[in-house]
Amino acid sequence: MGGGSGDGGDGVKTVAAMVLFQVVFAGLNIFYKLAVSDGMDLRVLIAYRYLFATAFLAPLAYFMERSKRTKLTWRVLVLSFMCGLIGGSLAQNLYLAGMQLTSTTFASATTNLVPAVTFVLALAFRHERLAIHHPSGQAKLAGTLLGVGGAMLLTFYKGPDITPWNSHVSLAAALAGTSPPHPAAAPNFAVGSLLCVSSCFFAALWLIVQAELTKEYRFHYTSTALMCGMTTLQSAALALCFGTRDAAQWRQGLAGVRLLAVAYSGVLASGVMLVVLAWCVRRRGPLFVSVFSPLMLLVVAVLSSLLLGERLHLGTALGAVVIVVGLYAVLWGKGHEKAPTDQVVAKVAADEPPNGKEEDSRIEMPIAANSI
Description:
The protein is mainly alpha-helical. The protein contains 16 helices and no strands. The protein has helices spanning 7-37, 42-65, 74-101, 104-110, 114-124, 135-156, 171-178, 189-216, 220-243, 247-252, 256-284, 286-291, 295-307, 314-335, 339-349, 356-364. The longest helix has 31 residues, at 7-37. The chain crosses the membrane at residues 12-32, 44-64, 76-94, 106-125, 189-209, 221-245, 257-280, 287-308, 314-333.
């Protein structure tokens, strides 16, 4: 993915890319549900997911960037390791552990805390300016809160059934009927809540570190392949130490719907979509990326009703409206903050080199330099 010829083109491309990203990850949740219904251990799924992603991205990175790629530095390797550890191994395993102790609905709802946590971390790292007295800052803050609130409303308030269609398809039930039940951990909402919130913290922190990596090393295919490779080793170690050592789980993970889930999550979600995410972070910053995360719940609600036999309720419709309002409020706020960046770009184009520090903060990490 290359840069557009103008800010307008980049704006449309980044918005479209993030909508696609959320649709793909909504499908990932469906495949998670199907794999679990088939009895697959989720820790094994994570390990295979990043293994497939590495296998897909490594040759792609070699052929796409071999003629222009610069030498890897220790700083790039350390940042890649930290991205894999924070955003892959820790965030994913904490999320799944929290899901096992609570419920899928509860865990999915907590992921909508990522924009708020990212906003706080961005302020702490001075990547984001609150500008509460400026209309753009007020719109950003209000839009972020509306997005989180709408996603919570969509998840926790059901209301009457308003499903516009009658679907008798339930792929999860069909798989559960043909597979032995997978042992589940005893519910513990106190511990599970802590794990889910911790997962949100690491997901938000990963967006910050990811922004630093893309600023340090602009070869996104290579950096993403490095991240996935690091996560593969880390996730496999976690799966063996804290998950399962049952050889059958690892062997059966490459058959049937489990193989389909692994291929989808590894090649498309962790492979292609992480490259898309890295490009969007470099273009618009982590806060812009994180605001789109509530959209995933809307897509999940629709796909779940069509494919898993779940019903749509009034809370889904109300939550969707609030999410869209919040989304456009943040986009409006960010759009009205682009003037300073445009001025710096104009200076560079006119061979008027600005201060080196300002160039780094304005071009590499424009405006709100500071989702899954």
